[in-house]
Amino acid sequence: MIPRYSRPEMASIWDPATKFRIWFEIEAHACDALAELGVIPKEAAKTIWERGGKAEFDVARIDEIEREVKHDVIAFLTHLSEFVGEDSRFVHQGMTSSDVLDTCLNVQLTRAADLLLKDLDALLAAIKKRAFEHKDTITIGRSHGIHAEPTTFGLKMAQAYVEFERCKERMLAARKEIATCAISGAVGTFANIDPQVEEHVAKAMGLEPEPVSTQVIPRDRHAMFFATLGVIASCIERLATEVRHLQRTEVLEAEEYFSEGQKGSSAMPHKRNPVLTENLTGLARLVRGMALPAMENVALWHERDISHSSVERMIGPDATVTLDFALVRLTGVIENLLVYPERMQENMDKLGGLVFSQRVLLALTQKGASREDAYRFVQRNAMPVWRGEGNFLELLKADKEVSAKLSDAELDELFDIGYHTKHVDTIFKRVFGKA
Amino acid sequence: MIPRYSRPEMASIWDPATKFRIWFEIEAHACDALAELGVIPKEAAKTIWERGGKAEFDVARIDEIEREVKHDVIAFLTHLSEFVGEDSRFVHQGMTSSDVLDTCLNVQLTRAADLLLKDLDALLAAIKKRAFEHKDTITIGRSHGIHAEPTTFGLKMAQAYVEFERCKERMLAARKEIATCAISGAVGTFANIDPQVEEHVAKAMGLEPEPVSTQVIPRDRHAMFFATLGVIASCIERLATEVRHLQRTEVLEAEEYFSEGQKGSSAMPHKRNPVLTENLTGLARLVRGMALPAMENVALWHERDISHSSVERMIGPDATVTLDFALVRLTGVIENLLVYPERMQENMDKLGGLVFSQRVLLALTQKGASREDAYRFVQRNAMPVWRGEGNFLELLKADKEVSAKLSDAELDELFDIGYHTKHVDTIFKRVFGKA
Amino acid sequence: MIPRYSRPEMASIWDPATKFRIWFEIEAHACDALAELGVIPKEAAKTIWERGGKAEFDVARIDEIEREVKHDVIAFLTHLSEFVGEDSRFVHQGMTSSDVLDTCLNVQLTRAADLLLKDLDALLAAIKKRAFEHKDTITIGRSHGIHAEPTTFGLKMAQAYVEFERCKERMLAARKEIATCAISGAVGTFANIDPQVEEHVAKAMGLEPEPVSTQVIPRDRHAMFFATLGVIASCIERLATEVRHLQRTEVLEAEEYFSEGQKGSSAMPHKRNPVLTENLTGLARLVRGMALPAMENVALWHERDISHSSVERMIGPDATVTLDFALVRLTGVIENLLVYPERMQENMDKLGGLVFSQRVLLALTQKGASREDAYRFVQRNAMPVWRGEGNFLELLKADKEVSAKLSDAELDELFDIGYHTKHVDTIFKRVFGKA
Amino acid sequence: MIPRYSRPEMASIWDPATKFRIWFEIEAHACDALAELGVIPKEAAKTIWERGGKAEFDVARIDEIEREVKHDVIAFLTHLSEFVGEDSRFVHQGMTSSDVLDTCLNVQLTRAADLLLKDLDALLAAIKKRAFEHKDTITIGRSHGIHAEPTTFGLKMAQAYVEFERCKERMLAARKEIATCAISGAVGTFANIDPQVEEHVAKAMGLEPEPVSTQVIPRDRHAMFFATLGVIASCIERLATEVRHLQRTEVLEAEEYFSEGQKGSSAMPHKRNPVLTENLTGLARLVRGMALPAMENVALWHERDISHSSVERMIGPDATVTLDFALVRLTGVIENLLVYPERMQENMDKLGGLVFSQRVLLALTQKGASREDAYRFVQRNAMPVWRGEGNFLELLKADKEVSAKLSDAELDELFDIGYHTKHVDTIFKRVFGKA
């Protein structure tokens, strides 16, 4: 968790203080259920909530105890007893440490998921706004980095929009994957604790009971969660890469926002680097790379081993904090993106209309020219344009064999950009429900 | 795609012959829609279906043409025209190669998903059968490879069952991710083809229209698909690892089925190696590793580049064929698994009842012993048992301070295995809806 | 192993026929050593070489036997006996299958390494040629995709050259990693075979004896080998990405060679897609992704399990064949790359000299201007240039405060490209030993 | 960088304070060279060393300046000027930020490599000690988790020893990969700075000049570095997995050291969990997973983009700190490993001598029995032993057809463990140069 790439909202989910608060809530809810079942006194459960609820847990103190007892949950319980007093002996009855640890991790991941969902909503809103703003902003579509046919900048945004809408669906599924709770004991048999306790705590914490836990909550859930983050990160990379391409000196159809005050902007006015989207590219690599260790975590030995723990201590915070940061950064990039429609037009015009060659070819064929002839007619007019000698439309009009098939008006129509944008509304309706 | 790890059902999905048949269907359905729109003659569409439908495409011939024209779709269309005749000029009107290629890939992946879902069903059935068969087969639960508390072999199976049920849910979601169709032209603007054609083809092929394609179907869908296969592979690894552990000489609580005729089984009767589950472990590594290239495929440049293609040519068949093979192999392993309940009991008995020490500790505390005292009492009886000197229950009964708190009958009850299995039915009901 | 991305030279290393030939050689060399030690008759060893040496092994026949005996090495030995006759009983004495399998795999990987080294040499030669050809071809250096300072195309090539020279060093190290031989028996103790046999076979096959094998050759060697291939693949991706950038429509400083006959080249003369380098980008993802399963293969259980085998059956051929193909393809791309120096100059000129702004700033400071003043002077002349209004050098000359510090001659000199290329020779000497 | 898995020695390399000290040294050495070249006054260089050398850089203050100027190197230089005074204007002349940043990163990685090499030496020493201690400690060798043939615990250690010796070689190569320095300016042309400055700084910092840098040092070097760490981590996983297996309840041939005082050790004396080696397994997953992002970092755009930076900010510290911690932890595990030779013998004896069946088979064949007969004789005596009915050696002696071929003395000899250990010295000599 690099402070530079962290937002406090997400980082705080991984604070020791947050963790201990969640631990307390799990324990206290369990006490409620145990009291209801008559295992511990109702009065004790009440006291635990009252005193523990007000307690300000001292992380340093807990660490100190842990160094002595070499056990994190015992250290916490010892510290808790300093607030709760004698009734603290009723806390954690019949439970194992993993009941607390695994349920807490899932609470943290669920909260992280909620924040990521919020981030995705903000990103979607930003993209949607730019999509409608530039619904009709003509730009050249590029395949293989080479000019292909015209499209609009709004369509680029619409593409990104549905892609991140899919990411939202995936995130919702990933959230569901890890929103489970286990209070099931040493090997998950509920030998020492009634399953009703698990049900109560699950409900109280906004989770589902884990159908079968084995001291631990099965790690396929977490693998799927982190794999999903990896896919979302890759979508971030895609949009970031688009911006990086658009900003390069020779293209310059869009730029990351660059405040006037930003150092160096004026002496080297061209030197506005797409550093935010480059950074997002790197962050995507990081988040993606964490999917693998998470998948390797699935095959724990027998009912559990603890090899997953070190992995999760790192990727739990790192993947969520990094993805949260990246989503928010990308949202800012899109919101503030400087878009240059004139430059888009200029770039498209550079090829003197050659991007319409395919359509001319098709029209000639439809007018009865053989494929070979049509090809030859188009070719002999395309080549000079390519060498920078002339405008494609003008040359075609001047070509006798072409004009024998297509009138000037028909040729003009072939070069009509409207041909390419006529279904923009259709696509927008698919994506946004309106155009 | 290694023949050794392939099943014909899945391999055939990736046959060139299958691919060309799908290409034909996409083209022919598109002709229907174009005919309906009046773009091409209805009679032509009919002829195309009739002649193409009966045609036996010659893969070698298509390859030969491709070597000449250096374009796979053109090669196919040329070959198709050899069957269809003159009307073949109406085929592919207004379409680009990617319309055919990407839609075909998704048809193949969808079919692969259907087969994997069938595999999962068979695996689930196999696991369920063994789960009920061994619902009450007592075995020691192990954390960290060390004996913890008793559980049942049926619970191990129930755990695997819900894990693969989750895999099925994930597979369904992954199938939905890639069941889309794009017939949208060079940069996805439908400039040369009506969106209704895409809608028709999608419906006819059992797909959804891709909301925004850009010549290509966006690769975040495929990334999610392959990431999901990676997670499922990791679940396979988990169950395979369990079998490998159970089969090791010192444990031997279960074994992969070993036919009497299998070479070497009798001269070295102990040398029955869990080679199938070891193999599954390796296959899991392979499938998992393919998730990363799939994620790197997402960030194509602008409207598309073709870097994804080589990746998919390899991992498309490899990941699905390997996972299919692995699921079927695992199903066989589970169906035929030799389970040794007596050996499970023997292993559990080896520790002379020490696995009950925790419960004795708890009982002593509940009877009023201080935590420190209880610990001391248990410890002094546990240590000789650990050294192989005596039985834990007997020693406890003979310990005066223990017997002052717990009667022989009470101690017997603490060593009752029923204490640990009392909620097996509860868990089975959660998992299977019945116990 | 996709035929499309395979060269016969590398693919043949992985042919079953090649494998069986290597198996034969290992067995026959072992017989020589056993005969020398007096374990088997010298005459038998001679017969084995003579008859086996001439034998044409029938892969289909061996497969057939394997289906029956379910053991690949036994199947081979059975087939071998069909050629060798009675003396075949002396073959494989005291050896285990892994002695043959693991040594053979390393022979194959060593041969693959040799081919890859040859590929690297050819690539290096191609890059070097283009480096000297374009040593002085001025082009703009770009950081963040934005024009920075001038460099030369030759320097770009020189950078690639040293990078692939490092790859060659790495490949040599990787070759050394896997050039080992093990003939050490069931758990590597040489219980049934003298270590001298291993030493003899190793020498005869051009390998080193594995210091400690445990039935298998330790897989950290293979992990390092495949990780190295992954790094080399990433270097291929770097150079491929450079070409893809240079070829994009707006830049077009270089292009993959495009034969005149290639379909579509003239009707859409701009539509020359960098499909080879895009393909290389995808191949790099594949090879890189195989490093992870190879690393997971290291932690075999105890003396060995067989989980590595399925992984290696796939990535052994796939990684080497794909990298070989990619290196050869990249060599072709570089050899035939169309380089457009004029376009490089044009692109550089587009910014009206702004790339020299930094140097002007520095010169003004050196002439005594405060940093703030210098910045202000440069800025007010840079901005109009940026807006396309004027040439930077002219504006500076016309600026009184600038000309008070720098004469026209001095300014001219600041815009001298020679300033930027003065150390090209130095760098070439570092890289090529000459300039 | 998780404090729990960090050692101060390695963590301190990544301290901001360390970084700024290295930045200072790079700048000051560059001043020396610039002074020598007459670019700046010698007196200034001297002052910079004197004042900067004594300065205690204030990290918080630099951060504060950075927030204002939004540039880390400028922030540092500003802070430095607060100590150095007016001569600070001679610092950084003709250099770019990357000259400082990239050279510094390589200094840090080189120091990290040195520490890792020291760790490897300590680990090797620990393994060697245990190897000689247990050179003759008989234990069963296991393939596929199943008893195979006897080996010694010392041989297991010897295997680990050579494996980590290879890791040391790899680490040395990795160190060499990243021990380079670049002071070459905006696109690496030395336009504004003489190459001699780079040579001087390189030498002074213990580095080699980077032959061709392009503002940045090429990232294939770092990819190779991190890939190497991934391989070493995988070797750690192998040895850790061995310990985990040996410690499991049913095997218990070795245990991680467990201090008497450690909580819970006596009440549940069997519950000594191999938590350190499980932890190492997880740490290996983490380090391995970082190789991929490092490889993706190689293909920077043109002369450089900054996508690598965020990746390195995370994996630079994380991979080195984690691997350092893991190596030291593994060293402790090996040094203190509790080894139980008696238990090893007991486990081996469990199969009643069946592990010698292969050798008996061989001996019978050598005595003239046909393979089929030999197999049958062995089989009929092996099966009862396998069912727990009798001792293999006794049964063989009582078998008439066996005793017709092999005398009791000969049979005894076949069961002689010395047969399996006769080459231990040979192997030790290979590994340690002595036995």
TrEMBL record, chains A, B, C, D:
Q: Which reaction does it catalyse?
A: N(6)-(1,2-dicarboxyethyl)-AMP = fumarate + AMP; (2S)-2-[5-amino-1-(5-phospho-beta-D-ribosyl)imidazole-4-carboxamido]succinate = 5-amino-1-(5-phospho-beta-D-ribosyl)imidazole-4-carboxamide + fumarate
Pathway(s) annotated for this protein in UniProt: Purine metabolism; AMP biosynthesis via de novo pathway; AMP from IMP: step 2/2; Purine metabolism; IMP biosynthesis via de novo pathway; 5-amino-1-(5-phospho-D-ribosyl)imidazole-4-carboxamide from 5-amino-1-(5-phospho-D-ribosyl)imidazole-4-carboxylate: step 2/2
For this record, the Gene Ontology CC terms, alphabetical, are:
cytosol
Q: Which GO terms describe its biological process?
A: 'de novo' AMP biosynthetic process; 'de novo' IMP biosynthetic process
EC annotation?
4.3.2.2
- Which GO molecular-function terms appear in the entry? (S)-2-(5-amino-1-(5-phospho-D-ribosyl)imidazole-4-carboxamido) succinate lyase (fumarate-forming) activity; N6-(1,2-dicarboxyethyl)AMP AMP-lyase (fumarate-forming) activity
Q: Where is the Adenylosuccinate lyase C-terminal domain?
A: 352-432
Q: Which Pfam families match?
A: ADSL_C, Lyase_1
Provide the family line.
Belongs to the lyase 1 family. Adenylosuccinate lyase subfamily.
Give the protein's recorded name. Adenylosuccinate lyase
